[in-house]
Write a structure and sequence with these properties.
This protein is of the alpha+beta class. Among the domains are: 7-111, no CATH class; 314-369, no CATH class. The chain has helices at residues 12-28, 31-35, 39-59, 65-72, 81-90, 92-105, 126-132, 166-194, 196-199, 202-216, 234-245, 250-263, 278-290, 317-329, 334-342, 346-357, 383-389, 412-416, 420-440, 463-473, 480-494, 510-518, and strands at 2-8, 116-125, 138-142, 225-233, 308-312, 374-382, 396-399, 454-462.
Length: 520
Amino acid sequence: MKIILSGLNLDIETIKELKAFIQQVAERLDEPFFNSLDPKTKSHTIHSLQQEALKLWKRNNLTPETISAAYARISRNPRPVNELREIARQEVDLARKSNQNIIFGLGHGSVAEHAVFNFDILGVSRFAAETIEHFRLASYTEKSQRYILFEDDFVIPEEISGTTLEKEYGLLIKEQNKTYFKLYDTLRPFFLEKYKDLATDQMNHRNLEVLAKEDARYVVSLATKTQLGMTVNARSLENMIIKCLSSPLAEVREYGQRLYNEVREYTPSIVKYTKPTKYLKEKREILKNSFSRLLSENSRNRGSEKNVKLIDYPREADDRILATILFQLGKLPFNRSFSRIKTLTPEEKENIFHSVFQNINVWDAVLREFEMIHLTFELKLSASAFGQLKRHRMATIIVQDYNPDLGCTIPDSIIETNQKELFNRIIDKTNNLFNRLEKVSSAAAPYILTNSHRRRVIFKANLRELYHFSRLREDSHAQWDIRQIAAKMTNEIQHKIPLATLLLGGKDRFSEIYNKVMQK
């Protein structure tokens, strides 16, 4: 694992100062010009630049703390904010005291959000990446398993290292990866032949190879190493570090410690409380003990069990959205706005929704009033599909552990190329070793599971967020597994909320859907 602090935000005036100094050095030490000077002038020039460099160095203001301190003072200091930034740049020690007093003394944690950091994260497992990307208020871009061929590169977690199962663990992952390449070698010509009219174009040819990589990876383990870039503010970063250091997984704890090691030089006044807490470390086990009698049943996969279920939604959702819009436009309280909407005929309501959607483009978000409607789904999905779902962090995502008893998601292409027996043989070996690893470490056992293994998830989002989800995940360019899940979610809610969901669908079909709706 390697965590590298790759960037942070600095006051623009500090950056300008440094650029000006670099330009001054370049001009005054320009070889023809400098060589033309007499020895005394040369010595004076060098001494002058050294003094200027020392002056800049002593300021020690290459930290985002000066920005957060300046903004912290806005509420109580009448000076213009650009002057407050100047003061913070010149007096970094005082700026840090100001941060500590306001963030930790007065409890105004939002001040720390003005400090932003970028990280390179390398060599973490796909399993750990689920925890890393769990935090809402950060941005992540992860290496795609759909576009890049695998290498035989995986994590051996500390919990398994040194045990009697370590060797078997490593051998099985190597066998999974070997099977991945076998599947890819079969699936690549399969897709090129299946879509041979498209394969003549070089770009389409690459896209068809992506389909082969996409489906072959269903046999690859969650222990596979990945990399990502992350951008996060200091307040969220502190929360990340505490939670990661409180994790039952050694890999996640190591990640949390490495995060802190990278930033502590730059954040002494804005990232302070990073020790793991007893509450976070012990809460899961305390709850498991409290619920032990109710946790005894292990639900096996049932063929009739739906993988998408709408388990909660508000009644009269269309009316609630219209009432909220009326509330925003008018001067009535909500209950009276809602009563007025109830007097409208179904046709009048549909016409109003047409005006709500009029002139909307595929890149436009629907009105904020759609956030009044919350929908809760229970999903049963593969690790591969969850990798897509987890990116929608503004939703509420509650997960169960991966459970081999829920079966596996097998890509159709593997069945069509007669590779199902090979696939299932690896899955059976994986499930067998998982059951034995659970006795060594229940927290680390899922490392051996594959992208095809399933878990149950509760996914709660407002309708505005669902529109974003639908446009992205029902699009033809989306991965087929999550695309099928998204389409079923849309189908579930359109029966319950017929008007506000009229434009749900992938962005590739937006124009078709829009024209059909507006022509009615």
